[in-house]
Model the fold of this input.
Amino acid sequence: MNEGASKGILVTTSGYGQASFEFARGKPIELLDGSNLLFLLAEHTGLEAKIEIPEDWVEPLPAS
Done:
C-alpha cells in the first residue's frame, strides 16, 4: 500500500451506504460510522457525546 500503510480507517459522523461496504470488502479498510465513533469515545474516555445534525442540513445528491 502507499506510504507503507497496512490498513485504512475511514471515519464519518454519519453512516456509509451499501456501495461503501462493497468497495471496502476484501480490502484492509475499516469503516467507522457515527454510532461506533460515539461508542468508542465513551468506552475509552468516559465521555458521553452526541452528534447533532443542523436543522438546515441538506442531504447531498449521490454522484451519478
The longest strand covers residues 8-11. The beta strands are 8-11, 29-32. The mean pLDDT is 90. The first helix runs from residue 18 to 24.
